[in-house]
Amino acid sequence: MCKNGANSIGLSNGLFGLREPAEDDFRQLKENGIRQIELRLKPGYFDIHEKQLISRVSHWLDRYGIEVSSVHGPSGYPGNSPVTGIDGETFWLAHPDDGIRHDAVVLRRETLDVCRHFDAKSMIVEYECYGYAPYWPHGSPIRKRYPDVKKHWQQSIEMLLEDADRTGVKLAIENIDGLSISEMSHQVDKWPEHLIGCCLDSSHATYDCTARDLNCTAVLPRLITTHLSDNDGLCGAGWIDRHWVPFSGVIDWESLIGRICRSGYSGCFMLEVLNPEKRITDQLMAAIEKLGALIDKCRSQISPVPEKKIQYDAHHKKASHRPSGQI
Fold first, then answer.
1. 32 vs 280: CA distance, rounded Å
2. How much is the pTM?
3. For site-directed labelling of 319, which of 207, 238, 283, 307 has its Cα 20 to 30 A away?
4. What is the 3-state secondary structure (H, E, C) of the chain?
5. 227 near 174, Cβ under 8 Å?
């Protein structure tokens, strides 16, 4: 069972495999004392237009006492995902085709409505500024370039900010391996804090830096959620998005958790891990307890957060409770 700092830790349901949620997922969470989840509302994992699925998941959340801390929205990119194999072209917010880009924005808008139904605090939107293809595997010969990708992505996000305001669900921009975290953070800083922030993916952040000094400083002032997992330390063309259980790779977790805690972050430490068993294992629970103890240790070593610090929920407009029926 989770205790102390471990109560601040949640799990992405991506752990359970490339499929829609099942009741047993929520039972496992409850039995192991995990009370927060990130739901993947993205193709391959969840059909947001299937009302019966939404109703079933609402029932399971209530039955097992699980809170939806965040939602992972659709992912867009040129080509196929190296993790799922899913083609991301039609979901790409920075696609050069105006029609495809419009449809990608509409899908995110519809996903934000489902986020509100589940009382999620934030929806993950990836920093989809892929300037060339194929993007993966890293180091592949470039066959096509996209010179206007940043402009297109920014335009899409600015349209979604209106929906973030309407639904009370923040956009959480996630760093991507090989793309500049500093540039991403600089762009997020231009937008209102009560509508948008950053999601730190620790596995992605290992792409171009040493294991101890993860390239995450720029996102910490606007951090509103996390995707925590470990990696093997390979860089460049040898990099693979491992999403290992914490403490099983090369990341210096004491350094990383210390930096997050000192930033004043008070939200959920969400894990986005994958394992062959596709379930909660003893190894994962041991890592969660160890991570929880580390959170407690780091929090005890810092002074109270100054009032000028922005806490995650300071401007979050709490959505209404989940209705028992449709959204």
1. 8
2. 0.90
3. 307
4. CCCHHHHHEEEEHHHHCCCCCCHHHHHHHHHCCCCEEEEECCCCCCCCCCHHHHHHHHHHHHHHCCEEEEEECCCCCCCECCCCCCECHHHCCCCCCHHHHHHHHHHHHHHHHHHHHCCCCEEEEECCCCCEECCCCCCCCCCEECCCHHHHHHHHHHHHHHHHHHHCCEEEEECCCCCCHHHHHHHHCCCCCCCEEEEEECCHHHCCCCCCCCCCHHHHHHEEEEEECECCCCCHHHCCCCCECCCCCCCCHHHHHHHHHHCCCCCCEEECCCCCCCCCCHHHHHHHHHHHHHHHHHHHCCCCCCCCCCCCCCCCCCCCCCCCCCC
5. yes
Rounded Cα gap, residues 309 and 2, in angstroms: 28
The identity of residue 108, as a single letter, is R
φ/ψ of residue 153, rounded to 5? -65, -45
For residue 262 the two structure tokens come to 């000192």
Cβ atoms within 10 Å, residue 113: 14
Order across the sheet with 122-126: list the strands.
Answer: 223-227, 196-201, 170-174, 122-126, 67-72, 36-40, 9-12, 269-271
Please report where in the chains the tokens 């939200």 appear, as a residue: 267
- The pLDDT tens digits of the residues spanning 210-259 come to 544 577 889 999 999 999 999 987 877 788 899 999 999 999 999 999 99
Please report, for residues 22, 114, 118, the alpha-carbon distance to residue 58 in angstroms, rounded to integers and kept in the order given.
12, 11, 7
Q: Which two tokens stand for residue 190?
A: 């231009």
